[in-house]
Amino acid sequence: KKRPLMEIDSEVVREALALKREQFVDFALLLGTDFTPRLKNVGPVRALKFIRAHGSIEEIIKIE
């Protein structure tokens, strides 16, 4: 079953999440891309918690 195409403004989402641009990019990377799979056991809620707690993927790697 086909779903209708939906356009999402990333700036609106970023502002709603109260993330800096760099944090939003890291958040999106944690969720996976067309070129990389999603990390196991890391969904949107957990990814956002990681970014809010540590600020960046680099800091997450240092701590986790």
From TrEMBL:
GO molecular function ontology, one term from the record: 5'-flap endonuclease activity
Q: Which GO cellular component terms, listed alphabetically, does the Swiss-Prot or TrEMBL entry include?
A: cytoplasm; nucleus
SMART domains, per the entry: HhH2
Superkingdom to which the source organism belongs: Eukaryota
**A single BP term in Gene Ontology:** DNA repair
Name by which UniProt lists this protein: XPG-I domain-containing protein
